Each structure stands twice: as structure tokens, then as C-alpha cells.
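explain this.
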Amino acid sequence: MAIAVNYREQYARYGRYFKTIIDKYSKKPAVRTSVELLLTLFTISFFAVFALRPTAVTIARLVSDIRTQRDIEGRLTEKVDSLRKAQAVLSAEQARIVLLDQALPRGPHPDQLVQQIEGLSQTYGVGLESLSVGKTLILGKTDKKKAEKFGTFEVSFLVRGDYGGTISFLEELEDLRRVVNLNSVSYGPSTKQGESGVIILTVGAQIPYYPEERKK
């Protein structure tokens, strides 16, 4: 190492200098004692400055690295705590998120709505005479450039049954978890001969949903 060679050369040079002084004054006891003391102090100071300096620099660097690592550890601990809190909030709200997905699903999924309407008609004993779904995306995902905040599609259907069944059907339709915005409702008795007490219910509705963006 350059530092090691440097301090050895300096030590050798100063050593020769002090050896000359020792040879000159060694015959005088008082001077010899003083010179030996000076040499001892010089040797201690020399090694303290030149030999121990690299060690001191290394220790200082290690202390700085330790402080840096502690700062990094502190930041990581804060991030981990934040992630844990976020996970706790997500877990607590998971049930609501499921309900939100049912109310406004990702994508139109008209088949799911049709199944719900058919299920209601069977539950309340009314006949689903006709059902039509407006233009909507069945398969694939919406182009991100064309996607709006909410997508919608229209649905219309006609059911036939008694008064109690049709009223219960309509009330339950409005209480579906999926959002159904009723645009028109037509309600009246059947005009067909032999259908006394039969009610005809015609419904037109608009169904909102979150568009599914197409991944590139």
C-alpha cells in the first residue's frame, strides 16, 4: 500500500536523523535521557498519525455506513407498516368491494342479468314472455381510447301473471344488487279473452357497468 511505504520511508529518514543526534550526545547522560524520551514520544506520535490513520478512516466509514443502513431500515419499516395498514383496510372492506362488483360489474355481462330476471319470474310465478337486450359488447374488452367512465346497455322485457306476483316481481327487480335504472314501466290487465285477472307488465331499463379496458 502507498500509505504503508510512505510512512516507512519517513520513519527511516527521521530514524537516521535521530541516530546522528544520539551518537553526538550519547556521551552526555542528561542529553541522552532527553533524546530517548523525545524518540519515544516521536515514535508513538508517528505511529498514531501514519499507522493508525487508515484504521481511523475505515472506522469512520463503517460508522457512516451503519447510520445509512439504519436510515434505510427505518424507511423500509415505515413502508411495511403502511402496507400492513392498507391490507387491513382492504380486508375490512372486502365484503363491500364484492357488493360493489355485483352492483357495477367489470363489463356488461348481460347473460348474468338475464339469469337474474328469469330467476325472479320463476320465484314469483310470472311468465317471462319476451326479453331483448340492446347493443352491447358480449365478448372481448372495450378499447381504452373509446371507453367512458361508465358503460350502459338497454334491456326490455314483458312478464305476465297475477297482480301479487307481478307487483312482487317489480319490487324485487328494483332491489337487485345489480343497478337497474328503470326507464319505463307499463302495467295493466290483459286484453286477451279468457285471461281475467292476468296482469301484463312491460319494463324498459338501462344497465350501467364499468368498462373493461383492453390490455395491450
Q: What stands out?
A: The chain is about 55% helix and 20% strand. The two ends are 58 Å apart (CA to CA). Residues 53-92 form the longest helix (40 residues). Strands lie at 127-133, 151-161, 181-189, 199-209.
